[in-house]
Specification:
Blueprint: H1 2-29, E1 37-41, E2 44-50, E3 59-61, E4 64-68, E5 71-75, E6 79-82, E7 92-96, E8 105-117, E9 120-128, E10 134-135, H2 140-147, E11 148-154, E12 158-165, E13 168-175, E14 190-191, E15 193-194, E16 196-200, E17 203-212, E18 216-228, E19 231-241
Parallel strand pairs: 9-15
Antiparallel strand pairs: 1-2, 2-4, 3-6, 4-5, 7-8, 8-9, 9-10, 11-12, 12-13, 14-17, 16-17, 17-18, 18-19
């Protein structure tokens, strides 16, 4: 009898384990359709459905259902959307030929509203072709860390900023009156954890401000992307100098 009881208990535990596993699989794979971000373009209808948040303390998504016209697919993208529901800013969706192949790509830009604060603004970007194939995108902040050198020095009437990116050198001249405290102005020119993506003339750019003091913006880096072998890499950087009226 004891052997039969042990066998029965063994089968019972196995059955419970199977039910738990099936229930867990069902719970994880049942799609959610309650949140939808959509966009319509000529010949392309887009619907994006964030799935269950990966965190109980915030809206942090790592799983999406993407529908392009009649094609549905799963995407393991990341979106740190916000601490509270009111923080969430809807993703920006673009449809443009950004690699000059006569086929338009879809660009999704997600605002990171969790890791934010004074001088911090981060985005996640994902690029797919019209069939939903993903294309990797080079990190612009990491690019600056590896390729940028900058410094500052003073003359009697001007502040001169020297910027070197790979083999390209720039000199920017600012009126000393733009800077409130010259005594505390050191030679360091930094940049913020602040990345904005934009498309101009069918070209993708990342925009990052450069600063003096602890956060005074005096210009922007515009990092241009080019598609090479399926990956969007940074191939050029343009410098935008703010005018005296624009410097705050």
């Amino acid at each position: 009898m004891k052997n039969k009881e042990r066998v029965s208990k063994k089968y019972l535990l196995s059955a419970i384990l199977v039910v738990v596993l099936i229930g867990s699989m069902f719970y994880r794979t049942v799609p959610r359709w309650d949140i939808c971000y959509s966009a319509d373009f000529p010949g392309m209808h887009v619907e994006l459905y964030p799935q269950k948040s990966a965190s109980r303390e915030s809206y942090h998504y790592r799983d999406f259902i993407l529908q392009l016209n009649d094609i549905s697919m799963r995407k393991n993208w990341e979106w740190r959307a916000g601490i509270d529901e009111d923080d969430i800013c809807a993703p920006s969706i673009y449809y443009a030929d950004i690699n000059d192949d006569r086929e338009k790509e879809l660009i999704f830009v997600f605002w990171n509203r969790i890791d934010r604060g004074t001088g911090v603004l981060l985005n996640h970007i994902y690029i797919v072709d019209s069939a939903g194939k993903d294309h990797q995108t080079e990190n612009p902040v990491q690019y600056l860390q590896e390729h940028l050198q900058s410094s500052l020095h003073r003359t009697e009437t001007e502040i001169v900023v020297d910027i070197s990116i790979d083999e390209n050198a720039y000199q920017l001249f600012y009126n000393s009156e733009c800077f409130p405290d010259l005594e505390t102005l050191d030679s360091h020119v930094g940049y913020l954890d602040w990345t904005e993506y934009h498309i101009d003339n069918q070209t993708l750019y990342a925009k990052i401000p450069f600063i003096v003091y602890q956060g005074m913006v005096i210009g922007y880096y515009h990092l241009q992307y080019t598609e090479i072998d399926g990956t969007y890499v940074i191939t050029n950087v343009f410098i935008e100098q703010l005018s005296e009226e624009e410097i705050d």
